[in-house]
Amino acid sequence: MSFLARHIEHPAELAGADIRPWPAPARRPYFDESLHQHRLLFQLMDSLRPQIEQAAVLMADTLRANRKIMLMGNGGSAADCQHLAAEFTGRFQQERRPLAALALTTDTSALTCIGNDYGFEHVFERQLAGLAQPGDCAVGISTSGQSANVLRALERARTLGLTTVGLSGRDGGPMAELCDVCVVVPHADTARIQEAHIFIGHCWCGLVEQSLAALP
Ligand SMILES: O=C(CO)[C@@H](O)[C@H](O)[C@H](O)[C@H](O)COP(=O)(O)O
Ligand SMILES: [Zn+2]
């Protein structure tokens, strides 16, 4: 059963939240409605803790084994991939060694070549197949959980012996099935989902830094 369905079946867990499909009936001006929805969504964040922490453990284990994290997503999620990869290779909050992470969204030559010659749904899968080693971790970010290029790459990642992590929204879409751990943000508005995604991404960075710092 999807995370969203579970919450709908157990409305007590929503604690009075009024999370509705978007576009919502225009009850309030955009700023007020967005702030309202954002607050409701972040009240639910603690219920995502198990999946958030499991994903961070997978990533820390990957880096501890000298393997790498590869991130992919479209549009705003492509920006999230790049943002998070930079937190790992650069620095988040602690002074520590650079950590191996790359976004498969940045190389315009690869994206246009693969997109043009093979189709846009292959842009991440083909880069991943060329770059991955068993034991790497593939991270797909998709607010709908429906983007074909992310789904294909996650499917391929599994056949190549990678671990797979998803960051999704709505009901998780088909992406949830392709991931060892998938964090599904139970909202219907892409913008609100993305705001939750970057919060979760930053938590991953902090949790991974703490985990690696705890090493002897
Ligand atoms: O940032 C936004 C909307 O807030 C857009 O750029 C959005 O990311 C794009 O429409 C994406 O193509 C949506 O893909 P996905 O999240 O459903 O995988
Ligand atoms: Zn956006």
Bound molecules: D-altro-hept-2-ulose 7-phosphate, zinc ion
Q: Which ranges are low-confidence, i.e. pLDDT below 50, for 5 or more consecutive residues?
A: 1-18
Oligomer: single chain
Largest sheet: 5 strands, parallel
Strand content bin = 5-15%
Helix percent reads 40-55%
Q: Enumerate the strands of the largest sheet in spatial order, edge to edge or round the barrel.
A: 2-1-3-4-5
Mean pLDDT: 90
Tell me the CATH superfamily. Answer: Glucose-6-phosphate isomerase like protein, domain 1
* CATH-assigned fold name: Rossmann fold
* Gross morphology: globular
Radius of gyration: 17 Å
Count of separate structural domains = 1
Q: What is the count of DSSP helices, taking H or I runs of 4+ residues?
A: 8
Structural category is alpha/beta
Which CATH architecture?
3-Layer(aba) Sandwich
Give the strand tally. 5
Element-by-element helix/strand order: HHHEHEHHEHEEH
The first-to-last residue Cα distance is: 41 Å
User: Mind telling me the CATH class?
Assistant: Alpha Beta
3D structure, described in words:
By secondary structure, the chain is α/β, with parallel strands linked by helices. It has a single domain, classed as Glucose-6-phosphate isomerase like protein, domain 1 (Rossmann fold). 49% of the residues lie in helices and 12% in strands. The protein has eight helices and five strands. It has a five-stranded parallel β-sheet, with helices on both faces. Helix 7 links the parallel strand 3 and strand 4. The longest helix is centred in the last third of the chain and has 24 residues, at 190-213. It starts with a helix and ends with a helix. Mean pLDDT is 90; it is low at 1-18. Bound molecules: D-altro-hept-2-ulose 7-phosphate and zinc ion. D-altro-hept-2-ulose 7-phosphate is lined by residues 74-77, 142-144, 146-147, 190-191, 194.
